[in-house]
Amino acid sequence: MDGEVGRGSLRSIPGVDVCSVLDGCSDLLVQYGGHEMAAGLTIARDRIPEFRERFAAGCRERITDDNRNPRLRIDGEVRAEDVSLDLAEDLDRLAPF
């Protein structure tokens, strides 16, 4: 909050389009923008209580049994015999990742 105006950022999960949820709250926001998985917003202090309720309701509508629990995404496999100090050093050079 900066006086009577606050700013926030949002991160989402697969299957919950955070900008779509914000569309349903747009009349409460000074401004907002982003994409399906992340967004930012500006809001007046007196609008926060109603925003919390409406935003939470919009998220509840989109959360399903399928997207409720985190999923482990594996990009590749490495055999134990392929792990070495050289590999660790190579991976370290890719930072930040």
Molecular structure report:
The chain has 97 residues and is α+β, with helices and mostly antiparallel strands. Helices cover 34% and strands 22% of the residues. It has a three-stranded antiparallel sheet with strand order 1-3-2. The relative contact order is 0.17. The model has no long low-confidence stretch (mean pLDDT 95).
Task: Summarize the model shown.
With 97 residues, the protein is of the alpha+beta class. It is built from four helices and three strands, in the order E-H-E-E-H-H-H. It has a three-stranded antiparallel sheet with strand order 1-3-2.
Features:
alpha+beta, 3-stranded antiparallel β-sheet, 3 strands
Produce the secondary structure layout.
Layout: E1 5-11, H1 18-23, E2 29-35, E3 38-44, H2 48-62, H3 65-68, H4 85-92
Antiparallel strand pairs: 1-3, 2-3
Instruction: Specify Rg, calculated over alpha carbons.
Output: 20 Å
Tally of alpha and pi helices? 4
The outline comes out as elongated
How helix-rich are the residues, as a percent range? 25-40%
For the report, how would you describe the main beta sheet? 3 strands, antiparallel
Q: What is the subunit organization of this protein?
A: single chain
* pLDDT averaged over residues: 95
Q: Let me know the number of strands.
A: 3
Please write the string of helix (H) and strand (E) elements: EHEEHHH
| Unreliable residue runs | none
Q: How much strand?
A: 15-25%
How far apart the termini lie comes to 31 Å
Q: Reading side by side through the largest sheet, how are the strands ordered?
A: 1-3-2
Coarse structural class: alpha+beta
